[in-house]
Amino acid sequence: MRPPPRGEPFTDFDELAEELAAQFNGDATALPDEAKSEWSEAELQMFFASGGQITPPPNPKLRAAARELEAKHDLRSPAQIEADAALELAREAAQKAPWWEKVTELDRQKAGVYRDAALARGIPDRPHGLIPADDPHFRQLHKAKHILPFEKHILFWESSQPHIKGGADGESRSVALHADEGYTHGDSACAGRGLDLRYFWDSSTLKVVAAVAYSQKAVGGWSAVEDETSTRWRSTLVHGGLLEAVLDELTAEVMKINIAPDMVTSEMTVRFKKPSSPGVVYKAEAAIVDVSPPLVTVSGRILTQGDEEASLVAQLQGEYFCDDVEPPPGALGWEAGRLREYFEAGGA
Question: What's the domain count of the chain?
């Protein structure tokens, strides 16, 4: 999914130029010097689409007239229009959430920045992916218009991260940046840890829904002498710690995209119901259960697929703590119940 059009001055000009050059088989180094400071994204796109033949008029008045015409007519590509519509749908859905009035304005702003960036990015390609493209559950997730793919981002907020710059005045800004790789996501997780977890935000239920699959690298152990795919000596079950990591990841992301990107896991309980095997695609989901700031209760579960009713593989119940709320002195190590009592008593 492509993000909305960007305006100059660009903070990611080189990335945008390379992206458009690749799209139209052009050369990013052919751009004139003034392109970075003066051209809009639509003008950059026109330059590459025309093979470098069409450039904006140098006369400021003509440029202003062209911009005015641009504003009156929708020059976005169909993909951009679809992406913008999806983001607008997500914003409207977030404002209808039952906890909207319970969270602070600051957390609403942070969640909005995180959600827009994550949904605009989608899920990059994974060359070593473990989920077949024709898997029924995976196809259903991609087909539904209200189910939007995303991946973990890291939030940087205003002056707390002064090295993140943006805007004409050069002041620090709020931004959520894509985490290219991580323990539970990205192509490195597929190739190195035998885990392919792909999650989506369901704007109709506000849940995070997912497909997850494992390879032999995720099992409890295998012979160092044999190839990892050999069946002569190895465990045939996925390590339970990896299932815990999947559930922790999903419940954290449902918290971040809905309520507060600045958060930490306070307490979680995982129950295993049946074993998991490599080479099988499972369904997973996470949901907000209760919002009592600064504590949020979440649930998550992994299920089997099938024509009959899905079977429960593992489930999680957890408490997450909004990290932008100042915890009481000495609270490190407190159980979630004690934290809740502290804040319900007004911090006494």
Answer: 2
